[in-house]
Amino acid sequence: MFRRVLCLAMLACTLTAPAFADPTSAVRIVSEGPYEPTGAQELRIHSERLRRDFIVVVTAPQSPLVATGQKLPAIYALDGGYGVAGPMGRMMAWAFMMSPAYIISIGYPDDQSDKRDIDFLHRTTVRDGVTIGGGGGAFQTFLIQDLRPYLESRYPLDPGKAILFGHSYGGLFAANVLADAPASFSGYVIASPSVFADPQLLARLPAAAAKGLGRRVFVAAGGAETTNDMVNNARRLAAILSAPPSTFVAQMRVFPGESHISYYPQLVPASFAWILPLAPAAAPVQRNAIDVTPEALERLVGVYTLDDGRVITVTRKAAMLFAGMTGYPGGQVLAETPTIFFAPGLDVQMTFEIGATGPANAVVVHINGATIRAVRKNP
User: Fold this and answer.
1) How far apart are alpha carbons 119 and 137 in whole angstroms?
2) Which are the contacts of 241, defined by CB distance < 8 A and separation ≥ 6?
3) Taking the domains of the chain in order of start, what are their residue ranges?
4) Which tens digit of pLDDT belongs to each residue from 332-377?
5) 2-275 with 294-376: one CATH topology?
6) C-beta atoms surrounding 299 within 10 Å
7) Helix (H) or strand (E) holding 239
């Protein structure tokens, strides 16, 4: 419950996958249903391996760039993504700020004790006189060999494009997975890793660094984190993954003035956009608008259907043309030629496919380096 409340507060503030075991007996669904208010799906999953339950929230992207049947990347966010990762990832795909991806948020039920102090630490340590940790290896096996194959069998997820996202103890866990088995994920977000709880980690990273094979790693910390040498340890980790002979592609980001948790709403968009960027957009070109007669514009007016059922609606008001897409705000588009239109100030171009007579039969839309095609819907 705490993380869901924290989610609302934060929002207001603002390459080869390994072989997997058969998941059919390793996990089972206890319950499932919609996760409000995001439209995601919430699964309560029981792990036979760990003999307890987890809450797994699966947020699908909303994006016209997703083709029917296309397998997509997945970002596995520990600590339930604090309730922020899923909605923000969905919004970013909607706004063409990142490649479309499923966000898989993994947390603990409210009626069950939180085991992150065990699950996220591969080695034991003493905190306030109590020994914690030691369950990281078992949780890693559950995540990679049990949970991922199950979800990949249920949703259109690309096994070769799975990204692990962890913060604090979760960041330490992600760094240990990278050190132990870098090929387990295609990318890593390691935020404020609690290296103080596992001093062996930094010494173990160089052996894995040469096995990066171009995988991306986003390392982050809050600039105002003053305890446990958090910022410097994050910098050391990033330096190891950046220096030869490392073959990782590492990005280090310190969020000025932010504390251990306050930068999380900034961390999500910054790391998601960097680790799953859209294809580079074409270099901006100078576009000059021309006048097109209302009669010529009328041939373009209509409803055009994408493969997934969403529509692009083109309307006319006098000598002005407007276009909008299901779930997206519309606006005026200007003519560069009688069949090519652009949205001023945006990387959006619409090319209408039209014959010598009659209305246009299709429209091809280029958005931020991506291309989609919609066919005219018959009346």
Assistant:
1) 8
2) 205, 209, 212, 217, 219, 248, 250
3) 2-275, 294-376
4) 999 999 999 998 877 789 999 999 999 999 999 987 677 889 999 9
5) no
6) 18
7) helix 230-242
Cis peptide before 277 (omega within 30 of 0): no
Site of tokens 């984190």: 225
State the pTM of this model. Answer: 0.76
Give CA–CA dist 268/88, Å, rounded: 7
CA dist list (Å): 177 to 77, 219, 308: 14, 14, 36
Query: Which fold, 294-376?
Result: Lipocalin (2.40.128)
- Which residue type does 153 have? S
- Could you give the 3-state DSSP secondary structure of residue 290? strand
Element (H, E) at 360: none
Tokens of 43: 């699964």
Pairing assessment for the beta strands 311-317 and 340-342 based on DSSP bridges: unpaired
Could you give the angle at the alpha carbon of 138 between the alpha carbons of 234 and 181, nearest 5°? 50
> Is domain 2-275 given the CATH code 3.30.110.10 in the classification?
no
Give the chain's residues under pLDDT 70. 1-25, 36-39, 279-284, 329, 368, 379
3-state class of 93 per DSSP?
helix
Angstrom distance (rounded) from CA 112 to CA 156: 30
